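Sample 3 of the quickstart, ligand pantoate:
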Amino acid sequence: VDDSPPLRWIHSIDEIRGLVNAARGRGERVGLVPTMGALHDGHRSLLVRARGENDLVVATLFVNPLQFAPGEDFHRYPRTEQQDGELCAAVGVNAIFAPSVETMYPPASCTRVQVTGLEDRLCGRSRPGHFVGVATVVLKLFNIVPADVAYFGLKDFQQAKIIERMVADLNLPIAIRLCPTVREADGLAMSSRNRYLTVDERAQAVALYQSLQLARSLVAGGERSAERIRDRMRRTIESRPLARIDYVELVDPQTLEAAPEVTGPTVAAVAVRFGGARLIDNELLVP
Ligand code: PAF
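Result:
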């Protein structure tokens, strides 16, 4: 017999805040998993971990217009509320906070959060304003859902670092847990945007993962030159005719500055377009 309380869908700020504050008042620990919906096994792993570590688990489901530039995929971003609800219920999530755009951004709202230095490189270079949109909505969600701990995936490495920096810089009373990337059987990182791929693009998209594994094995074999590693990674990706490289970078994991040599922990990060999908992935290289 399943006697767990049913999943609650909540659309109002007062209601979710009331629920969370009441739980914390009872001494319960609250976990938050912010998402844009279109949930996959990567999200599931965050939710399962949150379920295991907290008394109350809140997922947020909000396709945040502020993090999409004009011409990006805001309007066609997959919206799969019913399946998202089923996945959350199966994991034992207590509440989904799914606000409207008007609730999150009333007409007069104009405050923006900029994590300077970290937001204009890597993905920020080809998606100007993206991380201002991410930092702004995540800070709002932290204020609306005053949780003890929030969970993010490491697939979005730059996003994860920006959120950690924002939490430290603004002294936010929330712990951040970064969780490993979940992959398809062939290594492709799970992403809501994988649904944009055609069959041929999907087959070739494994090149991102293969380029990162190549970087790993080059470093394990003693290679230290970032230029040579990047060159080999680019060649791996470019061998797939449908791939259009956005960037292939080796960076310092904290500052996200380009690393000329792999002399300490270094993140290899890639962004590649396949048709209408822009895919990202990364791997920590440890010499
Ligand atoms: O990673 C995402 O899904 C989004 O960027 C986030 C953190 C939910 C903010 O909209």
